């Protein structure tokens, strides 16, 4: 197949005309550029939010850990999470693939299966992109355009002393899932989900392969007007906390006892002899949200999310002082019955492509 036949093979009939119209698509895939209408704002003007992410074979994925459809899902989900981290709604996507000879058209079609599944789940219209050859590895680059109410984008730089620090889901699961996949891999054969289910690690594997960005949670929180900063956990909780602390000029104090740990991750960590805190702080790719909120509204926000079946965990506080992040270890004293606290600076590290 030539380039244009391949594009039709991968994209034709994937999204209904109704879905595209709902997202304001005037001209979609098949022309030199897409044309979309700016959606009407609900009670006011909207601003565009734009994000781009790239996934490279052997850097972000390989055949032993992720099936083609998982690669497609995750490539789009990473961008959807960035839009959520601004309090926005993801709307349109542009997808570019650089394809080596080893990736025949059927494999790329399966990649698009996962990408379009993610697009349908989050209401995103895929409107175009680019296709090129690659000398060795597959490269997938996705740009997502979203919207947010004018002047309402939530940035990393708004945290205030006294705010509560929160996350919108358990952390460390994706890193634990990758640990299992690498340990269970046999050559280039992708570990089937059935094997993970038998090992009790299916939730961890799915967290790595098919992350679920917190779009709805972000919208509920942003609508309250009390969220002062947001960041998505892509490179690890510690790294994202440092980004908020430095952008806002505050110190974030996180409590180890309040960090949400899934039962399946705790069980797998025990079996593997791994300290789960390492995954939770430095693993990354969880794509939950880390943020700060006015302390007076933390309980109300948590209740609002719970009403929609969504979690929120308060994990610390923002304090005045030099920008930085501390972790509080607290433990009980069997003799006095009192809890002792030990504060330690949290290392500024996580996944870094150039570190």
Automatic annotation (TrEMBL):
Q: Which residues form the PurM-like N-terminal domain?
A: 30-148
Pathway(s) where this gene product acts: Cofactor biosynthesis; thiamine diphosphate biosynthesis; thiamine diphosphate from thiamine phosphate: step 1/1
Question: What Pfam families does this protein map onto?
Answer: AIRS, AIRS_C
Q: Which CDD domains match?
A: ThiL (cd02194)
Q: Which GO terms describe its molecular function?
A: thiamine-phosphate kinase activity
Q: Which residues bind Mg(2+) 2?
A: 53, 82
Chain positions recorded as Mg(2+) 1 binding sites? 53, 130
Q: Which residues form a coiled coil?
A: none
Enzyme type, top EC level: transferase
Q: Where does Mg(2+) 5 bind?
A: 235
Q: Where does ATP bind?
A: 112, 129-130, 156, 234
Per the UniProt entry, the Enzyme Commission number(s) are 2.7.4.16
PurM-like C-terminal domain boundaries: 160-323
Binding residues annotated for Mg(2+) 3, in chain numbering: 32, 82, 232
The residues listed in the UniProt record as binding Mg(2+) 4, with positions renumbered to this chain, are: 32, 82
Q: Which reaction does it catalyse?
A: thiamine phosphate + ATP = thiamine diphosphate + ADP
Binding site residues for substrate? 60, 285, 351
- Assigned keywords, A-Z: ATP-binding, Kinase, Magnesium, Metal-binding, Nucleotide-binding, Thiamine biosynthesis, Transferase
Q: Relate the protein's function as given in its record.
A: Catalyzes the ATP-dependent phosphorylation of thiamine-monophosphate (TMP) to form thiamine-pyrophosphate (TPP), the active form of vitamin B1.
Question: What else is noted?
Answer: Reaction mechanism of ThiL seems to utilize a direct, inline transfer of the gamma-phosphate of ATP to TMP rather than a phosphorylated enzyme intermediate.
Concerning its family, UniProt says: Belongs to the thiamine-monophosphate kinase family.
State the name under which the record lists this protein: Thiamine-monophosphate kinase
Q: Which organism is it from?
A: Paenibacillus oenotherae
Name the gene behind this protein.
thiL
